[in-house]
Every structure is written in C-alpha cells, then in structure tokens.
## 1
Amino acid sequence: MVAVRPDEQRIVITGIGLAAPNGNSLGEYRENLLEGRSGVSDYEIRYFGKTLAGICDFDALKYQRRKEIRRGTRAGSVGIYCSHEAVTDSGIDWDNTDKSRVGIYIGVTEHGNVETENEIYQIKAYDYDTQYWTHHHNPRTVANSPAGEISLNLGITGPHYTIGAACAAGNAGLIQAVQMLRLGECDLALAGGVSESIHTFGIFAGFNSQGALAVNDDPTKASRPFDRDRNGIVVAEGGCIYVVERLSDAKARRAEIYGEVVGYAMNSDASDFVNPNDERQAECIQLALQRAELGAEEIDIVSTHATSTTTGDVQECKALQRIWGDKGGTTALNNTKSFIGHAMGAAGALELAGNLPAFVDRVCHATINLDNIDPECNLPGIVANQPRKLEKVDYILNNSFGMLGINSVVIVGRI
C-alpha cells in the first residue's frame, strides 16, 4: 500500500497539454497510440541531409503572434502551446489565479544549439561578419529560455527555470514541481519537458558518428525498441506540460484528477559518458518503489525508456529483471518511442502522458515494430504490437534515463 499523507502533501496532476509527432492533444495522442499510428516521417536538415524524425505539427499561432515566434525559440513555442493547453484542460480559473504563486519547472536535454547553428548559417552570407549577429541571440540561448518564454507569455511571476537532465528531463521537471509544492514554494506548477532537437543538424551528426542513428526504408518502422533488428534512435521534437497541485487544492475546486505522484527517484551511474548502467537504473527504480511504499508486483504498467539502441535496451531490460525477476508477467511493459521516436527532454513527460488514460480504460498501449524480439529483451509482460486490456491499473511506473548516467523514475497512482 502507498504511504498515507495529508492532502496538503499529496501532489496530483490536474491538467495535461502536449505536442507530439502523432497528436496535439491527449485524446488524439492516446487514440493514435492505441491504433498503432506512428508519427515518424522522412526529414531533411542542412549539412546532414536526408534522415528520419518525429516532427510536431501544432498551431503555434494559437497562443503567440508571429513577431513573438520570430523573436523566441521553437522550444519556447512548444512550451507555450503545451502550457496553455494544460491550463485549459485543468479547468482552473486562470484569470483569478495568483500568478506569483505559480512555478514553472521545465526539463530540457539541450538548449541553444538550434539558435547558434542558425546564426552561424546566416552570417555565412556576410563572410562571417559578427556585426550581423542578431541581438536576440543571448535571450534565446540562456538555459532558462523555454521556461522564461512560458512565464512571459502567461504572465507568471512565480519562479521559473529549466532542469537540464539529458533525456531524464521530462521526469525531472515533474519531480521538481512535486518537491516545490510540498515545500510551499508555490501553490500551482506547470511542469514537464520540451524539445526542439530535430532543428539542430549537430544532434543528427553526433548520433550518426556514434553509430546510434536509426535508418529504415519505412520511417514508421525505424523506431523499434527491443526488436532484434533495431539500429538506433529516431530524433523527435515535442513537449508535454502538466498542471500539478496539492490534492487539497484540487479537491477544493472539484478538479478532475489524472493521477497522484506517489513516488519518484533520481540517481547517477557515475560509470560512463554514454553507456547506461543497469545496476544503477535498478537502484533508481527500487528507491522510487520504496518511497511509494509499493512492491514491484503492485505496479501495473511500466513505461520503458528504451531508445532502440543495441546496448541501451538490453541494459534497461537487465535493470527490470533485477527488480521483477521472472515474476513480472502480471506487470505490463510498453514503449512510446516506438511511435514517436526519442523526444529527448520531453520524452519522459510525453511517455507518462500516453499511459495515464489507462487508469480509466485499463488498456496498456503496445510497443509497435516489435516483430522479432531480442532474446536479451524478452521479458515477461512486454506488450507487443497490439494493446492489452488489463484487469486493473492502479500504478504506473515511468522510466527515463539520460547521458552522463542520469536516471529518473516517477510512479503515478490512480485516485
């Protein structure tokens, strides 16, 4: 059983706004996950050339003017769109909300690469004369930019910052919000992660030089976690922002609640720049379970991090094996990257969001493109290619790991 806390210390999710390669609302996104529709397509970027990517197609002008879009960043636009959608979804009386008591905690993998690459490309036409360098560059590239753009657009005067946590960042943003709400630093939080990664050629070139960039004649088949024929990551952009608040406040305004954050953990491998460490990942999962006062057998769905790399998928499966052993058949395992690619700083937040509706419909969406499972990834409970109806869904565990050995786990419970 999960620990009993007073309502003022219980933190719940009451709003979700997202932009994903296969959907721009939770309803659309969830439908495409259940129907097996991929959001990966052909893509071409200067200097690198033709590749594959998860590309978002949301209406940036819904909440911004053209001038604001030109001045700001793609990551900022993603965050602004998701934040507005989350606030609307939460049903909160935004006009009468004290904006000085709202916190913004946004996870990012990297920020500023897109803008710097663009400026260097632009001044190339002027023989690299830096007098033509834009005066917008510094505010675009400071680390707090995505969160700051949300603050400016929504008039939020409470604390805002980004959390640089590589591909564990989406979970980290949510974890930060939970901590700040429990400390009384804010009364409401916008939290999650954003990514503009597909707009920098450097990330494609970097993964390619590592031999970790996916290739496939059919873009929709390229992202294939756990599959024997997987050959790398599909880079994706996107974002997911949650409205997070205390249960006492949510009850007072009779809000619809998606779930309660009942446990979380973060730790470090301290062993390699890139290669993951299954022992440290398992320790992170175990710590989250301990904080939630749950046994592994009580988790109904594990949303895996697996990115379709040869080593990474196997290491995560070893970590899961350490926790569940051979008795994990009652816990369903799935993977969202198989649909949308790897959305970097947004990955953890988007992947959790895609599973939260299971509290209501008790359906675990599948991992698609899992045609020939790697024997080293053949864990009991993996949901392959077709959704699975479950007897119950009370707890969802969300894995999200990143480079430099940063690990994060979030557990959400049904209310």
## 2
Amino acid sequence: MKDLFAKIYRDKGPLGKWADQAEGYFVFPKLEGQISNRMKFQGREVITWSINDYLGLANNPEVRKADEEAVKKWGSAYPMGARMMSGHTDLHEQLQNELAEFVSKEAAYVLNFGYQGILSTIDALVGKNDVIVYDVDAHACIIDGVRLHLGKRFTYKHNDLDSIELNLARAEKIAEQTGGGVLFISEGVFGMRGEQGKLKEIVELKKKYNFRLLVDDAHGFGTLGKTGAGAGEEQGVQDQIDVYFATFAKSMASTGAFIAADKEIIDYLKYNLRSQMFAKSLQMSLVEGALKRLELLRRSTEFKDKLWENVNALQNGLKENGFDIGTTTSCVTPVYLKGSIPEAMALVKDLRENHGIFCSIVVYPVIPKGLILLRMIPTATHTMEDIDLTLKAFSAIRERLENGTYKKLSQALMEKMGE
C-alpha cells in the first residue's frame, strides 16, 4: 500500500511545480492599500486590472458609511447560526424581496457564499435520474456542483449551438428512459473569455426540448442590461431563465450571493440547499451593506455607464493596436499572446516592474499550452490616463515577446527548474 502523500511529494501539479519561482509574485500576490484603480504592489504604485470591483462601489462614500454603521450596530458575528435554525431576520427577507424585484423574479434567497451557493443549488435541483448539460468552459464552482451529481451529465462545446442541440437530444433520450428531467447550465458571462452565454438561442430550444435553465450570472449582474439586471435582461430573455444566480463578489463589492426563481422553486431550494442549511447565516453587516449597494444600482445607472465608457475605451484601444481580445461581449477583457510559461513570467514581471501595470496572468492548464492570457477587469474607477498608459505598456511588452527578449530572460529560470 502506498503512502497517501506519495503523489504529493512526487508531483506538485502543473501550477504547483512553479511555486518556488511564482508564489508571492505571480500567484498569491499581495496588493496593498484601498481597493482602487491604483494600488501598491511590493512598495510600488501600479494600475490595477485584477480587481472585480466593476462599479467602483468598494470605496463609494455611501457604501463605506453604510458598512461602518452596520458593523457598529451589529458587529461581525450576528446572527449566529444557520438561517433555518436561528439566523433568519427581517433584513434578510427585505434583501431577498428587493433582489427578486430587481432581476424580475417572483422570489429570491440570499446565500452566504457564491461558490458554495451555486454548487449546492445544482446538487439540490437534480437527482440520480436527471441529466445535466453544461458548457465545457464552465467555472470551477459549476464543475464541482456537477461532480456531486449521481446521474448522467454531458458537456457541450463552448457556446456551440450544434453541440448544445446534440447534447440536449442525448440528455432528453436518457431522461425519458430514467424518468428524470434535464437541467441545462450556462453562465451569463464566461469569466475568462468574457463572452456572454447564448441565452437567447438556448431558450429558443425550449420549443424543441424539455429542459430547465440555470444561469450563473456572476459577471453579468450589475454590468449588463438596461438596469443592470444582467445577461438575461441584456438579451431580452430574463423571463425564460428558470433559476438565476448571481454573486455579491463582483458588482456589489462584497461577500454573499443569491438565487432567484418562481416562489415555489425558491421555497424548495431554501429547504434543500445543504451549504445553507448547515452553514452560518450571512452576517447582518453584509446584509445591510448589500441593501445599500442594491439601492445605488436601482437609483441610477451612472456607475454602469462609467464602467462601459472605460470598457469601450480599453477594448477599442486594444483592437486598434492589433491585440487579440477574442470575442468578448462583456466587461471582461482578455488579451491573448503566444509564449511559454517562463516567457509569461518574464513578461508579467516587466509589466509590473517597469510599466507599473498589474493584471492577472493565466497559463496552462487553464488555457491551452503555448498561450498566455492577460485578463483585465475594467472598473468605473479607472481613468483615461490609466487606459492610455496601459495601451502603451502592452505595445512595449508585445514587442519584447516577439523579438525573443523574454525567451532569453526565461532561460535561467528553465535551467534552474532542470528542464
């Protein structure tokens, strides 16, 4: 019999093997200062493109005041206990009612965490006789939720309508045999590529196939649609989404999440979501803070309008300068380059040390080998100066990547790794 830890000592994983060179800089970096368009990294000011504060609410004066007053009033512990047992309050219900109205659903249920929430929602919606159909590029929380499923599940090619229909047909055939149903899962916005899920086309398929639609709209809520109600509103199909999910961790600049659907569905879920039934209720200070944030979203679209002014300036500038930003249809702005992991490390170090630009680096196994993805998150707090400086910096690092400078700089790292 092998030691359980033998595999850990032998293989650190595709990212873990770079830990000695990467940790503290490329992964697990420490940004300092208030959340803003400019923060400090290792003592230097950098323009930050890695903070999911889309609407700039993290340091909005009204939000900060509401947060501070809520903490003074309630502390950070109240309520103690799970919602079902001792942690339910009038403010939780108020937030749920206002969220349901905002996203045009009969009812909503507040969750303590987004990752746990969507995972547990999937688990509660399906049984062993049901079939799940989901996008191959789904977020890890969706994949983990699907892993809990004891029945059949199929992935379709990312946003590919032919693949979607093929797998719906397969799922329907099996569900007819098992006596189950079909759950279709898409994201409103795919967080790496920035593409919206093809919700309009998917709901059209309801005329041909019998399925229920769950949409994870973490990146769409607050950023898309006339009022900011998300990708479903943007595409005119919000009423056809059977279960709508969004997190407070993006546009709301906070912690928590919610699901919204017909009242009967929400009533069922709140009695069957294990991650909520057996976990502490969302703290009152966060609930009050979420109410203030939602009030600002409902009051005006000024934050969303400013966000999109910056998004359009950044994305148009990148395209005009010949950069590949894929087919994003959201605020998420991916910049695709070609190179190895060591080259990516050299490139990002140059960006941070010499150009004062901080953005997330994504490499294999998240994306295919040989590609480098610089993932940028524009916010309402960025300025045109930030965008101009960033465009100039990206032009400079692309030239160094193409002329082999980063390849030379990475040789020492490769030799150190013994490769």
## 3
Amino acid sequence: MLKERIVITGVGLTSPLGNDLATFRSNLLEGKSGVTTFPVRNMGEQPAGVCDFDQTKYQKRKEVRVGTRAGGIGIYCAHEALKNSGLSLDKLDPSKIGVYLGITEHGNVETETEVCQLFDHYDEEVKYWSHHHNPRTVANNPAGEITVNLGLTGPHYTVGAACAAGNAGIIQGVQMLTLGECDVALAGGVSESIRAYGIFAGFKSQGALASNPNPQKASRPFDKGRNGIVVSEGGCIYVLERLKDAMDRGAEIFAEILGYRINSDGTDYVLPNPQRQEECIRQAIDRAELDPSMIDLVSSHATSTPQGDEQECKAIRNVFGGNSTTLINNTKSFIGHSMGAAGALELAGNLPSFSDNTAHATINIDDIDPSCVLDGLVINEPKEKKGGIKIILNNSFGMLGINSVLILKKF
C-alpha cells in the first residue's frame, strides 16, 4: 500500500468528445463517437480524434503563436483542473506545486512545420527558421509552458513513456507527493499527435493505421474487422493531493489512488508481450493489497490493432480468468488513440463510474474476434454493475514495451 494516501481532487480535460468531464462522460454513455477526419500533409483526409477548445481562454493570441499545441492543451487542462478542485493559486505557495506530464513524443509537430516551410517557401534558407524552435521542442516543453503560464516555481518535467505516459505522469505525481517534494501535483498527459504527419505515415508504413469509409467506425478494438489505430489529440490533468490536505480544506474527492506498477517487456520495439503485461497488472494488484476478484472495472488499453488487442486480451484473461463480475471496457473505440494523453483521458471517462455504478460500453464491435472474447466485456451498450463500482484498474501500454497500470478506489 502507498505510505501516503493520495487522492484526486480536480480534473481538467479536452477530448474529441468534449472539454469537461460531464460532457465527456455523457457522450460516452450515449455511445457517441468523437472521431472525424483531419487533413494530413501528403496523405489527405484521415480518421482522427480532434479537440475543439478555446485555446485563448487562458492564453493571449501571441502566446498561442509562440508556444505549442501540446503546451496549449496542457495550459487549458491545468487551469480547468485547478478550477475544478476549488484551489486558488493566490492562496498557494507556487514553489510547492509540481507539474508532471506524460508525453508520447514532443517537438515533431513544430519541427515538421519548420522544415516544410523552409522547403515550400524559403528555398531552404535557414535565416527563416523560427527562433522559438528550441523552447518549443525541448523535452520538458508542455509541462514548462504550464509553469510559465501559471507562474509556478515548483518542479516540472515531462515523463516520456510512449502510450503508457498518461498513467506514468499520474504515478510521478503520486511519488513526488509521497516524497514531500510538492503539496499539490498537476499530473496527467497531453498529446498533439494529429498535427504531425510523420506519426500517420509511420503507422501507415507499419500497417497499423486505421482506415474505414465511415471515420466513426474506424476505431474498433476487439472487432474482427479492426485494422489499425485512429490517431487523436487531447489532454487530461488531475489535481493530486495528500488525503489529509484535501480533507482539511473540505475538498471534493473523486477517487483515491491505491496502487500502480510500471514495467518493461524487454523483447520488441512494437509487439507487446502479454506475459509482461500480465505481470504488470498482477504486481499493481498486489501492491494495492487486493485480489483480482475485487477489481470492478478494467479500462483496457486496446488500440484496434490486430496483434496488440489480442496480446492484451491474453494478459487480461490470464489475470481475471472467467470472472464475469469484473467489467471491461475501452474508451479508444470512441475517441481513437490520444497517445501520451490516453491513460489519463481514458481513466477520466471511467471516474464517474464510482457515482453511477455504470461502465460505458466499447462501441463498434459488430463481429467480435474470437481471440478477443473476454468475460465481462461491455459491448455497444453501457452496463450497470450490481453491487456497484468501487475499484477501477487502468491499463496503458506503449512502444518499446513500457507497461503501466494504475488502480483507483472510490472514496
């Protein structure tokens, strides 16, 4: 068990299904897809998850131009999370607020833009290269942009953890609170991936980019007809506090973090290892001093790739067996894969389950792949759980075999 009890007291997000938790959750329960199309350089219109939020709500137009899309997403989510938590910055010590953001990659968008502009308009004359390029592309950028915008002086950094990064950012926040390095942690993940055509091209070259005449049907985890990832952008940042501090100020508590685990496959660049994923899940459950039968809801990572979904199903099946009382769902079927934000954003979509005791569905399963059959999988319609939902396990896995699992408890 964690030596210090850490709780979530605020949530700020932007997603292809809305810019606040209530809207996001409502659309999930209604079965709405947030996938549309997005114009990708050299590739035309592609299925994608696109966020529509007011980036000038917390930034001046000049700041938006100077900064990055990922930084803008982070700034929006951080402000919304703080507002949601009831915390007021003018009453806090800025040196005791830490920012820990998970990212899949960063800087590709801005670098591609600069290179293309040089080729297309300036005959490769480097004097036209933006002097904003370096601060835009340093690895700590999205977290750093938040501290500059909010005037925070505590620690900040990004956690590069591929598509396990959303969970990893939260875990880092938990660890830093436990160590006493901060009193409030802004933790989660962000992604601007749809702005980088290299990501689309890379997945296409790999044979892992989704295609479908209807973009809303393109992301279809566990379905026999799945053919790849729908690239999405988004972000989700949580306000994390020690339980005592949250209770002292009478904060609303969304959930308590019970346990976590990060491990590595150590086997392949892209193909997941179900044995290592299984170990990660089991070790997180053990750390939380739980039994698999006590997990009410598993938020699966499945990205809609043929092999990836099958491998995760093996891991889930081995841990939970025929325990149909544990419900399993997937949020990527609604919004696609938001990369560095995925773990944090998908967790947010399930947090309200603690209140309504309902698991949102996995949509777009028309013909389930026999290798992906799971007892408890919630298909196409939400399902209310008898006895309630008290514990959620959140899977988030990434390239180069990084696996992360986070376990939360209803408070």
## 4
Amino acid sequence: MSELTLSRLADRIDAKRDDLIQLTRDLIRIPTTNPPGEHYEDCARYLGERLAARHFDVRYVRAEGAIGDSDRYPRANVIGRWSGDASGPTVHFNSHIDVVDPGIGWQHDPFAAEVVGDRIYGRGACDMKGGLAASVIAVETLIELAPTLAGNLEISGTADEESGGYGGVAYLSERGFFSRPRVDHVIIPEPLNKDRVCLGHRGVWWAEIETRGRIAHGSMPFLGDCAVRHMGAVVAAFEAELFPLLAGKRTAMPVVPEGAKQSTLNINSLHGGQNDGLPSPLVPDSCRMIIDRRFLIEESLDEVKSEVRDLLERLKTTREAFNYELRDLFEVIPTLTDENAPVVTSVANAITRVLDRPPEFVVSPGTYDQKHIDRIGRLHDCIAYGPGILDLAHQVDEYVGIEDMLDSAKVMALSAWELITGERLAG
C-alpha cells in the first residue's frame, strides 16, 4: 500500500474508461422504471454477479411486505461487501437502481444508452446509474491497488428511492444494514455535480385535501353544492395567504438552486367530479388536491401542517357549507450532516485534490435516501456525492458525462482510502 499514490490511482481509473462506459450502458439498458418497479431483480443480479466475480460477499434482500412489493414486482436489493486483511472502518456506497418513467419528447432512445461525444444518454444516466457505475469502478480500483486495506468496502443497489425508498434503504436500515458497527461512513452518488458535497436535504410533507359538496343534476346546480368551487376557494386562499407567507421564509441551509432557499408548496394534482372520457351532467360532490410542501430545517413539521389546517379552518367559518378532510400521505424531516463530519472532510479534500478547486457545500431541494440512513439507521456520517448535473434529473434526454464519471470515481476512491486508513495519499 505504501507504493499507492494519487496519480497511480487516477491513471488506473482512467485506464478503465471503456469498462466504465460499458457498465453504465448496461445498467441504463435495464429499464427499472418505477412505478411499477420493473426489472429490479435483473438489475440487482447484474450488479451482484459483477461484484461476486471480484470477491465480494453478495446478498440479495427482497423487501417483502414493503409498499409496492409483489411477486410480479419484487422489491429487490443487492449488497456487496469486500473485507480487507484486518478489521477497520467500513465505507458504503449506496445507489438506487430505480428510474422514473421516461416520458415523451426524447431525441435519444431512453433505454438505448447512446454514446454521443462525452455523453451517455438515457433514463437514469444522470439519476443515478452513472453514479452507481462510477462508485463500482472506484471501489474495484482501490481494491486492486490496495488489496491489504484494513477495512471494508460495500456497494449497494437499492429499490424505490423515487417513490420514497421504503422497499429499499428504509427496509434495509430497519434491519441494520446502515448502522454501526456494520457501517461507519456512507456516500450516496446522487447527481449533485462533481464539485459539490451535498450535506442533506429539505423536508417534505405530502397531503391530500378533499372538499365535499352535494351531488345534483348539472342543469340544476342550485340544488347541489359544488365541491370544485369549494376547492377553488382553497386555491384562492393559498394564493392570497399561504404562498406569500412561504416566500418570506428563508433558510441558512446552503440549498440549491437559489429558489429552493425558501419554503415551497406545489399543487401536485387536482381532481373533481365524474369524467371517464365523456362529460357527466352532475354537480361534483368531491374534489381532491394533492399538495407537495417542501420545508426548511428552521421549521417544525407541526408548524408546516398547522399553516394549511388553520387556513382550511378559517374557510369553514367564512364560506357557507365548506367542509373538508385533510389526510397525511408522506412526511420527511430535513436532514443536515455536520460540515466537520469525517465523510464530509474526506470527500471535500478529495474534490480539492482531484479537481484542483475547493468544493461547494450544498443541500438538495428534494429528499433522497439519506433520510432513512439518518433517521432509521441512526448513522449521521452520510452525504451525497456523485457525477451528473442536478438539473438533468428526470428530464428528457437525460445524460451523464463520461469525464465527470471518471473524475467522480477518483474522488470516491480517494475518499474511501482516507476514511479507511486515516492517511493522506501521496501525490
């Protein structure tokens, strides 16, 4: 190990360029679309077989009973562990294998993994199969050059991050896969740009608001009570009261992009009345809205919920026959890793050395699987770092840069070295 240098590590990773490209393309070509959760087992097996061939102890874990798990769409996860010659710290690289639906409007086949210049196009290229591939190359290279490391390296491919992670990291966290003493440090190769260390994310509360009315014939609406009009009053109150209130809330968290430094609320969907392709001559007696509220570490979840509930209660007193139900769907508390945590320091040092510039410390506007590692696993030495441009995630013609993946692999390998050995690798 004493002969290992940063330049030797970087040269070996550069020499694996073709392997990295092929691995990324193979992963993209497995269409692990979620929902419903297609081809998870195929992707987990592909990754597991590669790791097993390189002397990893590989485990496959199905999240039986988790949301979405079924015999048709099993929530398959894979964890590979390489153990060094002596006991020591464990560094874990966790990537989700699921991708969102490609949508329409692509110029490139979303699952062909076309290579054009320095880019590999495809659904999941950026978010986050490019990051998964880079972490695999990083760990494999480190093992080849330092086979007597006194520590452990893990790679996982997990399910369902795009739908909350309950069939993936949450399930595994509940079973000790992301807790000490098994794991000490976690790096999640999400696409936050290769010169950024992502310390955490904002909070989220999803809820459903249903307004109630009274059904009647559409030609005689005066005999009914229109639930859609009641929901219109909710939207108007949001515009007049809630959106201005949220715009005034700012955070000290380094959230990117700039617009996410404030509290936000998105009206995710709105459905009212009966319409199955043909109009129905009825006054709608129900209207449902899904809201997606993103909140700051300075806010409490109780405060966030009260703002909406209080607004609805005020409408009950000011609007005749207004009636509603408010139902919780999903909630996550904001998380923020300390800038002085070992994993932050090591990744920051590696970025500086590999890219020859200091990193930017950021917080993600949306949540990712760090929430489960933090809250369930009680492991706080966790960050997101990986290749890919954040703004490309979930877009049409999503791509990942090949040079970005190579640079990120170097950062990951150097970070893992420092976390395991506690030493600075010579130039």
